[in-house]
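Our working data are protein records whose layout never changes between entries. The record below serves as our worked example for the rest of this section:
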Amino acid sequence: MRIIGVSVIKNESDILETFVRHNLGYLDALVVLENKSSDKSRQILARLALEGLPLIILDDPEIAHKQSEKLTGLIKKVSAIYNPDWIIPLDADEFLNPDKGETMQSVLADLPEGSVGQMGWRTYVPTASDDPEQADIIKRIRNRRAVESPQYYKVIIPKSVFNEKPFIVDYGNHAVRFENGTYPLEHYILNTLRLAHFPLRSSEQILTKAFVSWLANLSYDDRTIDGWHKQSLYERFVKNIPLKSEELERAAINYAADKGVENSLVEDRVKQIASYELKYTDLMTFHPMASVASMSEDLAGRLREATAQNNEDPGQEYSGAKILSSVEHIEQQSLDVSPLRYLFDMFNPESALDVGFGGAGLDKFREWGATDVKAIGLIDVGGGVRGPDTPSVENVEPSFDLGRKFDLVICSELVNMIEPERGKALIKSLSRHAGKLIFFTASQPGQPGEANMNLQTPDYWIDEWAKEGYRPLVFQTLALRMLSNFSWLKHNSLLLAPEAVAGSLKAFDSFGLDELKRNNADPKEWSPQKPGVYETTLMGKQADETLAQQPDQVLAGTDRELKRILLKRAKVNFDLGNIEESVSDTSVALAITLKLREPLEESVVEFLNSQAKLAEERNDKKTISRIVSIMEKLRAAASEIAKKSS
């Protein structure tokens, strides 16, 4: 029986480490959608993932708290990849708590087939007698309400639901219904499993959370279901009135409870089966004003985007946008960040080699802290290996030898473009350079594309890698596929490691090779994607709209990221004296600026002038002419935008 938890979290640093460690004692894996926290929640999750826990982090930059939509999309992604028997949606303040002598397996075995399970809340209440030095929330807060009125329930979803008809998890995870709005599913109360609930834990936590949550709900929809309980606390935060210990206790007793119900406390410690010590208590501190500042920035950014979108004329084509066609390989370049971020979170590679794709993703590794990255391919954003000795995809020899090893070697969609025998030589070369991990993809039969000479299935490559002593890390490979936006990454990704590395990851033993081969055999859908940098995993309608219809307003963020990378590389090329490449990158970046209707940065225009001066010093008339043409198009486009604005 496989049980996977899913969660959407934001600003939960005081409880998050306990939440992950405790619940993984009952779950096979936990998938967390991190909603752009302003505290240290993201750092805590990253450190936990680096320990090798079966934890998957998805980054969600959207401010509005669309929990029902996001969680439903997340469940559909998890179920499609991992094929679990049960999925349990959990909030960060909720802890699985079976009765003494019960396990999750024994509890769920009693559930009638096809029924949605329901766990009753038991709300825990902070008191003045709690030990303030105890960081573990379920050890510190030991008392709960004697009566839950009303009794709220949270759902456990069986395979028979998420594998059959389209469904929606209601706001708050209290029920499951079909997309047509009906509730034909039987909801069965589990009397031997409770959900320990710690909604209010300290004055700073609850006031800050109320303030941020109230604004998030307002930015989404005024008609929130449970937003009512946040309003009064929001007003306390605004007036800078902290809660006294007795007020906090009273607020927790009355949290989401019927008015006028007399209640009392009973001591009832949460059952813990996982043995652990908290390691990241230094990251648990609350900074209320940081949360407020972050929320203000997000709201301002959303307002700017909304204003820009309202002013757009979708049918208008600016002359400057034509500059995009000047560098064909840039137009075709796309970057899916989420799978790369997962690799970094899980393994923290200090060194990385990209063979074939050209290193566009390595710029992200540098941002996250990698100190030693190298690329062989068409594009190198870092500039560290550009020069006459750097081979390109067209002339790389499969038997290359750089005389060293890297923590991570990446090779994407290259081996399929060379003859089978040369492909086997490339496999040996990649193995020769890999110190720990290999992230490998190759086009397979039925996949659209040109110039392919060696189309093989992922199962074929698994066998080839086995000859070199490498086997796939099944859980992590499936995670990469789940996180991917691009169809070729969803279907082709393999994360491989030598036996010594693979054998050390004991937490993933329950995910066997047969599951990866099952996923390999699933029907494939190959879809195009608009060139750009995709910072987050898209789900549901958002993915369909972005990857298929590709509206410019949705991809504005990816365009800005591509522009940043282009300008960085342009400056590297300029310093190296590669004036033609530098001008090409700058022109594309400027075209993106015009496309987004954003002001031309003075520093970029000055940079283009510096390029012109260098070209003039070299008497490079071709480059000078091109720069003049670019400047004329920029002026014309700027004039056109100014006329429309007036």
